[in-house]
Design a protein that fits this description.
Layout lengths: L23 H5 L8 E5 L5 H10 L4 E6 L2 H13 L6 E5 L14 E7 L8 H11 E12 L5 H14 L1 E5 L6 E8 L14
Parallel strand pairs: 1-2, 1-4, 2-3, 4-5
Antiparallel strand pairs: 5-7, 6-7
Helix pairs in contact: 4-5
The chain binds S-adenosylmethionine (SAM).
Amino acid sequence: MAHVCPWWFCYTFDNPLRRLVHNPEVMLAPWVRPGMTCLDLGCGMGYFTIGLAKLASPGGRVVAVDLQEKMLAALRRRANKAGLSQAIEPRRCSEDSLGLGDLAGAVDFSLCFWMLHEVPNLAGFLGQVLEATQPQGRLLVAEPRFHVDLKTFEAELSQAEALGWRVVERPGIWGSFSAILSPRQAGAQGVGQPAAA
Ligand SMILES: C[S@@+](CC[C@H](N)C(=O)[O-])C[C@H]1O[C@@H](n2cnc3c(N)ncnc32)[C@H](O)[C@@H]1O
């Protein structure tokens, strides 16, 4: 397995103080509406999953995907505590497959927060997310500045663009290089706007 964030390391950044710089509901509100189908890819212990599920409710859901069962177990506990288990579907994936076949063209919003640099087969990964995304859908990619340099981040975006994604926005997110991407065939329509609920 490529280097992935160990479960215990998550506690260094997934803690209550993080809300001061990354408030999930405030940060993701521009792109997520009630009723949406969302993906939290590399969800870890679900720091963003809970906020995403609140924004997508009522009527929406978050499929939260991670390689590590320990991360998903922590997410299940948090979802139960928050009363959001109905809106959150934890899914364990493999490095080869995200297991999104049932979601082809159905996803409105996806999040890859501080995880893309851990993915060994970026083309395979981003291609699967593209297949799952509806034409006006959005993908938010954020990479940690303390770990990923700008050149690497731009290379990730170039690879995404070569696959059929298009960068439509550059939001400012604390401690991160970040971009909003959309399927290229969406063209100029709705650039910078959230997908319709
Ligand atoms: C640094 S943690 C970030 C967790 C969360 N997104 C957050 O911001 O709190 C990265 C997570 O991505 C997961 N991950 C790494 N490679 C992955 C892959 N190919 N597919 C799915 N998850 C992956 C790791 O298991 C880990 O939980």
